[in-house]
Amino acid sequence: MDNLPFDLVGLAASEVDSLEAVYKALKDKFAVKVPDDFNIDVNQFDSIKFYENTDRQSEVTVGGVLQIDNCANNCYVVFVKIRHYYPPNSSYHTGERLDYYKYQVWALVNQKKDFGRALIRKETFTDRVLSIVHPLELDFEDDKAFSHKFYVVANDPEKATNCINWNFRNALMDIDLRDLVIEMVGDDLIIGNNDWLNPDTAIYSAKIASKIAAVC
Questions:
Q1: Mean pLDDT across the stretch 43-66?
Q2: Global model pTM greater than 0.90
């Protein structure tokens, strides 16, 4: 496919093929376009940050953005370009340049409300055990079904509770987040995971984002 709307500099041919597959899958499922303006800093999200040490460094940039049409709020699919490289002082340095680029896909919704910082993911048995010892989870007393299904933590419980209202929670109840996470920073919300390019994950994340955008 010619003229892919992404930064292809430094990519292996296999990564370009994966980008093309994801792009085609999204275009088949949604009305998408390249937005005229996108100024959201993806590095503000902890879910996208990568651990760095003296051996491996990472740089995260936006390599392309698609806007999903017909959404009440601004709803995007963000293609995050990640550079992994090993500096010369790395213990893994063997004289060759260990430097490569990979892509991830995250759906993003720019909302009308400020959620503070909050994280939602599928609840596990370990979460339930830990909540007994360290009760950090945000619990919704009026919505036990949601609280049982999802694990929610927030730095401002009152603000998050007001924003994660009944309509928001109801939009998620028939969704299986699997290994996906929803992270909110202020009025920006992302959905995705740290896996590399996968058309099914991209479509699923975009569907969740579209549903949230309709109620926020």
A1: 80
A2: no
Neighbours of 97 (CB within 10 A): 10
pLDDT in tens, 79-92: 999 988 776 666 65
Of 210, 163, 211, 212, residue with least CA distance to 32: 210
Which of 15, 20, 18 lies closest to 4 in space, CA to CA? 20
Output the pLDDT for position 53: 53
Sort 30 into a burial class: Cβ within 10 Å, 0-12 / 13-18 / 19+. buried
**DSSP assignment of 16-64:** HHHHHHHHHHHHHHS-EE--S-----GGG-TTT-----SS-EEEEEEEE
Q: How far apart are CA 93 and CA 119, in angstroms?
A: 36
Spell out a b/e string for 143-163, using b for 16 or more CB atoms within 10 Å of the CB, else e: beebbebbbbebeeeebbbeb
Token pair listed for 62: 């936006």
- Full DSSP string of 105-132: EEEEEE-SS---EEEEEE--HHHHHHHH
| CB proximity list for 186: less than 8 A, separation 6 or greater | 114, 115, 116
Q: Quote the pLDDT of residue 123.
A: 67
Is the pLDDT at 61 greater than 80? The verdict is yes
Q: Give CA–CA dist 19/2, Å, rounded.
A: 12
Q: Are 149 and 122 in contact (CB under 8 A)?
A: yes
